[in-house]
Amino acid sequence: xxxxxxxxxxxxxxxxxxxxxxxxxxxxxxGNGGSSSSSCARDPQPQLESSGRAGSAGGTPNRRTRFRLxxxxxxxxxxxxxxxxxxxxxxxxxxxxxTILYYLLPFGALKPLTRVGWRPMSRVALYKSVxxxxxxxxxxxxxxxxxxxxxxxxxxxxxxxTFGVNMKEAAVEDLHHYRNLxxxxxxxxxxxxxPVCCAHxxxxxxxxxxxxxxxxxxxxxxxxxxxxxxxxSFLGPRISTEELxxxxxxxxxxxxxxxxxxxxxxxxxxxxxxxxxxYHCFHSPxxxxxxxxxxxxxxxxxxxxxxxxxxxxxxxxxERVVLTGDWKHGFFSxxxxxxxxxxxxRIYFDQDLHTNSPSYSKGSYNDFSFISNNNKExxxxxKGEHLGEFNLGxxxxxxxxxxxxxxxHLKAGQKIRFGEALGSL
Length: 425
Description:
The chain is an alpha+beta fold. It has helices spanning about 75-105, 125-130, 130-145, 150-165, 180-185, 230-235, 255-260, 305-310, 315; strands spanning about 5, 20-25, 50, 70, 200-205, 210-215, 220-225, 225-230, 265-275, 280-285, 290-295, 320-325, 330-335, 345, 365-370, 380, 385-390, 395-405, 405-410, 415, 420-425. The longest helix has about 30 residues, at about 75-105.
């Protein structure tokens, strides 16, 4: 609706020049009478004025004798909203390289840009935008390149010096034996280098550093101290009761309670980080039966403890392989979590597993059951038996059921080697 107001203090001129009209766009307010022009406040929008000459009769009209137009602003707002939406993708593309410079350049060189409306991306969002899967596949191709014999010792010696690798434990100490970096990463150890502890029920499945351990509480697991992730997001939906003897689901049972199969037991967890210089194979931590494998394609962000404190639910975003089954005390699971340049996760008894595939659907998972008509027992694993391997380094997460008197023999942050005790009853 258009309302025209005309001042009554001066007599109207005989002719109006419609080529020179000032239009004041005013936003109507609720609760006002609306009949008087003084009851509506002016909208702080810029005034629109069209150029022209004054009429021949009256010259330039007085300001009080101009027309004031008042109309709903819905169409104008919608048009401005469309223009802002059209400019957002271009602004985002332009801000991506500027954000990198914003965090790299010293003395806040790009801070003046924030005064004109530009905002840098957060460090977490910037890191998540890095194509880690593509970089990991490129690194895997590079690892497969066979090195000349004369170049092997300098390259491997630099790696040994950088990450503190103990080659005296390797089954083959001669550096010229390893044709490429991949073979060097997956080197085997001497049989006597890692004695398996038989006195404790659960041993370390690999070399590494203890990031966290303890009881699972409120369906959440700590990846590092103070940073947690959801147990259900990490393991995925509950597996069918034909494969694992889960407790019957009821409306009052949480996901954690459904995993516990025996009365009086608790759910425990342990997180082991494998550094690039560690032994990259992992073994069975106890005597148990593997009945199911679940593969989560995902990101390949670094699982370094510093990054794990920085990104919440990091382990739930990364690619991982979850092996679930049971041991003498109930539910047992071992999860191999991928990381940057560690897209290749190999399970020795699972030839159908292919990780870091170029085509994948984010948030999906692939299930495979080891229980069939011909094999009702699944895959039996003995304590210390070879289970799988990484490339470069990653993380292993153990989540298992045990009686309340189960005790860990660990300290947070300690270095541990394959075969040493994790805990016992």
